[in-house]
Write a structure and sequence with these properties.
- This protein has helices at 11-27, 41-46, 53-62, 74-83, 107-121, 135-143, 154-163, 174-184, 228-231, 235-244, 258-263, 270-278, 292-301, 323-338, 352-370, and strands spanning 31-32, 34-36, 49-51, 67-69, 89-91, 126-130, 147-149, 168-171, 191-194, 200-202, 220-223, 249-252, 266-267, 285-289, 306-309.
- It is an alpha/beta fold and 378 residues long.
- It has three domains: 10-99 and 317-350, NadA-like (Rossmann fold, 3-Layer(aba) Sandwich), CATH 3.40.50; 102-226 and 357-370, 3-Layer(aba) Sandwich (Rossmann fold), CATH 3.40.50; 230-309, 3-Layer(aba) Sandwich (Rossmann fold), CATH 3.40.50.10800.
- The radius of gyration is 21 Å and the shape is globular.
- The structure holds 1,3-dihydroxyacetonephosphate and iron/sulfur cluster (SF4).
């Protein structure tokens, strides 16, 4: 099946790749090009490093290059811009590369929910916000004592706040929230789904009115957002894969439905999936429930094992980054350095009014995950 990520191995492509490599050599230490795991294989091939959203934010924050050409979707490039040092500029080759899940909540909606939850629980509920969100949400999270998390560290961050005795509001991805809650064994009577209209729905349906779950006792409140790419994975696809090959190992991303994660053998972030499959033995068989272009790249890198997607499900936003627009970004840097009046393609800018608070929330994540002292300050 043709996919938006299919590599075109033609002469035009190799001319573009050559020019990208030449420009990268010429610009040297002035630029760095990170790429997310869901990028097209030919974009990954010209990038400087590839990773999941945590690795990209941590390594991006440590980079000293003047220009960061971010090959990923906008919320990722925006996070790099929030963490950028003064004088660093983040570019995204296609500014239209969005993430529908990140659009599912904004700061005004979250603020209203947090006020309601604070009143209901009688405590300051901590926002724990998925990286897949925009700067306004990250800033609100920082202001209200919360942190950002990614799929690789959500359990650690959630534990951090629960251990401190704080109820948590998690968003926007419902699936990641409930899957992590399951990993931590949180009592379902104390978990509530937060509907877009603010209605709260307990995760355990109790018919006895005396035992009706009381949101004032809630520990975890999860917003009702989702990723359409991961929503397409179903338990019967796993069953069908196992009936074709009982030896197969099924690994999925935790943005998949709860039932899918429970039916799989394991789950993890894109970097976690990459490392698990890479550590598999030659001859092993893998069915992978995440973005399909990434699964096909894994299969191409490890031809000694069978690696297939659970379903051909693609992120068309990630696919907006192409060799053509990466080249346009690099050419714009060269032109801009020669003449500062020439525009850069395309600058990711963050409102200075939100940047400091958003950086607070992102740095709290890095501090807590890396065990740095700042993690305790909230
Ligand atoms: P990772 O942090 O696992 O790379 O996930 C990012 C993402 O957008 C998955 O859909
Ligand atoms: Fe957003 Fe889903 Fe694409 Fe990840 S795969 S960037 S969550 S739309």
């Amino acid at each position: 099946m043709a996919s938006p990520h299919d590599i075109q191995t033609n002469d035009t492509n190799s001319a573009i790749i050559n020019e990208i490599q030449e420009l990268k050599k010429e610009l040297g230490q002035q630029i760095i090009m990170p790429a997310h795991h869901y990028q097209k294989p030919e974009v990954v091939a010209v990038s400087d490093f590839v990773g999941d959203s945590y690795k990209l934010s941590k390594e991006g924050a440590a980079a000293s290059a003047r220009f960061i050409v971010f090959c990923g979707v906008r919320f990722m490039a925006e996070s790099a811009a929030i963490l950028a040092a003064p004088g660093q500029t983040v570019l995204i080759p296609d500014p239209v590369a969005g993430c529908p899940m990140a659009d599912m909540i904004d700061a005004a909606q979250a603020e209203a929910i947090l006020d309601k939850l604070d009143a209901l629980t009688g405590q300051a509920v901590a926002p724990l916000t998925y990286m897949n969100s925009y700067a306004d949400m990250k800033a609100l999270t920082g202001r209200r004592g919360g942190a950002i998390c990614t799929s690789s560290n959500a359990a650690k961050l959630l534990n951090h706040y629960l251990d401190a005795g704080k109820p948590v509001f998690f968003g926007p991805d419902f699936n990641l929230g409930i899957n992590v809650a399951n990993d931590l064994g949180i009592d379902r009577k104390r978990i509530f789904r937060v509907r877009k209209d603010g209605a709260l729905e307990c995760m355990e349906s109790v018919t006895d009115s005396v035992k009706t779950p009381n949101p004032s006792q809630g520990l975890l409140f999860i917003w009702d957002g989702f990723c359409h790419v991961h929503k397409t994975f179903k338990v019967d696809q796993i069953q069908a894969a196992r009936s074709r090959n009982p030896e197969v190992q099924v690994i999925v991303h935790p943005e998949s439905d709860e039932a899918v994660v429970q039916a799989a053998d394991s789950s993890g972030s894109t970097e976690g999936i990459y490392k698990t499959v890479a550590a598999g033995t030659p001859g092993s068989s893998w069915v992978v429930g995440t973005e399909a272009s990434f699964v096909h790249r894994l299969a191409a890198e490890y031809p000694d094992r069978s690696i297939v997607p659970l379903r051909e499900s693609y992120c068309f936003n990630m696919a907006r980054i192409t060799l053509d627009n990466v080249l346009a970004s690099l050419r714009s840097i060269k032109a801009h350095l020669a003449d500062p009046l020439r525009p850069l393609y395309h600058i990711v800018s963050v409102d200075p009014a939100v940047k400091a608070d958003a950086a607070l929330a992102l740095n709290r994540m890095i501090d807590i995950v890396e065990g740095r002292a700042g993690g305790a300050k909230h």
